[in-house]
Amino acid sequence: QHSLTWCWWFKPDQGGGLRRMMSTVRHCVRAVGYAPVAVLRACASSSAAQGVSAPLEIDVGRHGCSKASLRVGRGHDPSVNDEAASIEASMGPEIALWGQDASFVTDTAFGVADGVGGWKKHKVNPAYFAARLMQGCAERIGDDSCGADTAERYRECLADVHREIVESPNKQYFGASTACLVFIEPIRGVMNGVNLGDSGWRIIRDGDVMAASQDQRHSVFTPWQLCKRWPDLDVIDDDPTVADTQDIEIQAGDVIVVASDGLYDNLYDNEIAELVVEDPDMSAAEIAKELVNAAVPLMQEKDVVSPFSSRASDEGFFVMGGKVDDIVVCVAKISAEQASPARLAIACSE
Q1: Which residues pair with 330 in a beta bridge?
Q2: Measuring CA to CA, which residue among 2, 24, 1, 29 is closest to residue 11?
Q3: C-alpha neighbours within 13 Å on the C-beta side of residue 145
Q4: How far is CA 296 from the centre of its chain?
Q5: What secondary structure letter does DSSP report for 14?
Q6: Which of 71, 111, 220, 320 has its C-alpha lying 20 to 30 A from 154's C-alpha?
Q7: Closest-CA residue to 136 (of 91, 169, 183, 180)
Q8: Is residue 329 pLDDT above 80, yes or no?
Q9: At what angle do helices 36-49 and 2-9 cross, to 10 degrees?
Q10: CA end-to-end span of the chain
Q11: Which helix (H) or strand (E) covers residue 19, if one does?
Q12: Among 8-12, 160-164, 210-214, 226-230, which is the least confidently predicted range?
């Protein structure tokens, strides 16, 4: 009962009210045990009912395909994900893998990590490192231990998780991956984005890519990457502090795409934007599936000029066609829903 009263009392339009409200909500969660997202929705709904701008509603979805599932002349078989099955089981329900691409999705946060395949020559499956990195980020976001409200703070959270993996005695987590984190704040209408490597995020607004993460590569074949290695191994090991961070205002109608390079190496940004707005009634999950289904056939085309072949040409390599790779796509579809006092009770009872 006290948590409901506090949620009604602090309004985001009052001086410092949002920060006090968020602090109080965290106290409510720890003391009473309400689910964090449910309580935040309750507080946002109560504020909207009192004349404050309604919070953003977020529809989320995810889809992927492993390159192991590709069959010449058959497109792809989504049921084939054998390489990842045992890793998923060990990581818990938050993590999903397609080949070496790991991801997590919550109501307001996404993460994508693309395991670096070159580690296989060292007899290491980089999917373990990628999955553990995403598991650690999901756990910290879930229990609010990041305490973040800016992209730079989420970058610090990523660095903390990376350090824990590096210092862990578990040799199973040797490997490397890219890392992309996106957190959406529905009350403030802000997206916090962190990206290291050639995975990344896009914000599509009115049919165009309005904002995008920085693409980070040492070369067309080598993305920036986080790593856990044994001491005498000479491999690329980038520092998390070099990750691109951006805080972007978002609005109803925006669609946020977070994906591994399996998408961006095969579809140009304008093609992604066109597919996203093709059918306004598509859910986030349907958009994610549509993007994967559009990219996969292009991977196997040998006579197209793809984003990957264009970048290779710029660096002096002659490469034609798409790039066969694992792919994972997470999508958030943003809308605004008028809240009512009734939603307060519903949300807090979830």
Answers
A1: 62, 258
A2: 24
A3: 11
A4: 20
A5: S
A6: 220
A7: 91
A8: yes
A9: 50
A10: 15
A11: helix 17-32
A12: 8-12
How does residue 50 score in pLDDT terms, banded at 50, 70 and 90?
very low
Amino acid at 55: P
Tokens at 15, concatenated: 């001086």
Q: Which amino acid is at 11?
A: K
Virtual torsion, Cα 61, 66, 71, 72, nearest 10 deg: 100
Give the separation between CA 298 and CA 137, rounded to whole angstroms: 32
Query: DSSP of 318-330, one letter per residue?
Result: ---S-----EEEE
Higher-pLDDT residue of 148, 268: 268
User: If residue 84 lies in a helix (H) or strand (E), which one and from where to where?
Assistant: helix 82-91
- The DSSP line for 53-65 is PPPEEEEEEEEEE
One-letter amino acid at 44 equals: A
Output the six-digit token pair for 97. Answer: 């893998």
CA–centroid distance for 273 within its chain = 18
Strand 109-114 and strand 255-259: the pairing is unpaired
